[in-house]
Model the fold of this input.
Amino acid sequence: MSAVPAEQAATSKPARRPGFSLGNPWSKPRWLTGITWVYILWSLLPVLLAIRVAFNEGRSRTAIDGWSLKWFFGDNSFSVFGDPALQDALTHSLLLAGLAMLIATPLGIMLAIGLQRWRGRGSGPANVVALLPLVTPELVFAVGLFLLFTTLLSTIGLGTTAQVIGHVTFSMSFVVVIVRGRLVTVGPDVEEAAADLGAPPLAVIWRVLLPLLAPAIAASLLIVFALSIDDFVVSQYLASGAETATVPMRIYAQARAAPLPSLNALATLMLLFTLLALVLAYGVFRFMTRGEKRGSAIEQIASIDSGGGR
Amino acid sequence: MGEGLVEVPGGLTMQERRIWGLFAAPGMVWLGLFFVVAFYAVISVGLGNINTLYQPIPYWNPLDWNVGYLVQAIESVVPGGQNWAVVVRSVIYILTAIIGALLIGYPVAYYASRHAGRWRGLVVVLLILPFWISYIMRMFAWTNLLAPDGYGSKILSALSIDSLFSSIGLLDGTDWLGGQGITVIIALIYGYVPFFILPLFASLDRIDQRVIEAARDLGAPPPSSFWRVILPMSKPGIRAGLVLVALPMAGDYYTQTLMSGSPSTSMIGNTINDYIQGGPDKSLGAAMTILLSVVLLFFMLYYLRTLRREQGEVAA
Done:
């Protein structure tokens, strides 16, 4: 590592702050540039290749082999929309993600507003409990829910309901982090002004606070969607059979077995949905916070990322 | 209530401060049931018993608790126990993987935060991207690459990396997916590095450029300004990032199954997964989960503290 600064001294191109020049030691060390781009290639190329294979003409899952869409739409029973098992996995993943999104977001918003303002007995432990799911290893979390639904709540049992509940539980903490970040940004001033002007408390929440939170709400909806669709461990532990298999579960089960590109096609579709949700989240957030201080959107999304280990 | 608003700093009366607790109620009830009670179910099963069909009978009342399975779990993870080898292997894999993550992740985060220049936006997006690609899909991509006829295997073979690794004993044969510890470790690094880079990036990005300028102005040559200013200031970010990646690795079982599948590379997550999903040992699995949680609790609370401190800083 001691080579970093030596390199820095050797080259003298100005970097990052163009206006700065005092015999500049801030130049860009080339080997850092190299490592970073090699890392980025290493991290993304395998996935790009897996996507490319989904468009193969032939049956190989390890080599590029022509172009076609037959593994997506082919009328053979091996394509995503031809094989009921693959199609069901996609439908089930989307169903879980949609439900988790609609339940976790309102719960998380209320929890965030409550935790931000509530000062009194119990608010300390409540804060810890609201964030603890972010750092709990998913296996511990999943084992807990699995045992809960097979003992105390065996009337609900394993299956779709349990899976939705599991997804809501871990994604709610992400909503709390996003919404609290937004609450801190907007501050209490506007609300206080509304209250001083005579607005009753519920009107303050409904007509002042919620519109101010709108970008965070939109971002939360779509991020819960993305988290849910990518989830594997909780889905697997709470599944009750083949009909409750999700896309990651299918991939996990067949990655080392069935050698057909339709699995790549399924993975590609899932990735498409995730990225669509995130691009939408980012776009909506940017659009709704336009005119506010710059740089907030990407920093917000980045800080959400660093909030948890999924 | 109108005039009450100005009396308390922050604009809220004491009564209102409590009313906000009602807002938190639905979410707290949900988390109470499906997170806190769920974990209590692990304790009750782990300290419970089984019926004649090997199904767990949870003991919800602490007075009834039976420590038999917990004792059995503890005995299995001490030297000489049946899970001792797995524990040692897990620790080695996780430590190697987080060191790897540090060696790869630090330069990348450092470059992205301080030197990316006009590429910064693009670099940050590309660093965030793997985070949102399903972990299972990222592993799946490697199972294709490392299959005997995959591009990855071919390249590694063309570069003689497989024979190099074989000669130093890191690889047994030439099948990268055939139960190789090294493949699991590299896969863990590949899987978790993005989770390390982002918090580290955030913490490096917060270092005030003027502090580094001051160090240089006061005559610190570039190496000392790195070792004595930047590195110490990024230590909290390094620690938080390492904890953040070590926690999920401790419960990871899918990386091992996808990249190796052999019992000779199984980790503690595989053991718990086998106990819980495998069949007759659910109570023992629950007891192992309790043990794992106790070991990890310290790290979890440490990370939560840094997270809340950061939120506090933003608020202030």
Observations:
- Chain A has two domains: 3-54, 84-305.
- Residues 190 and 208 of chain A are 7 Å apart (CA to CA).
- The two ends of chain A are 30 Å apart (CA to CA).
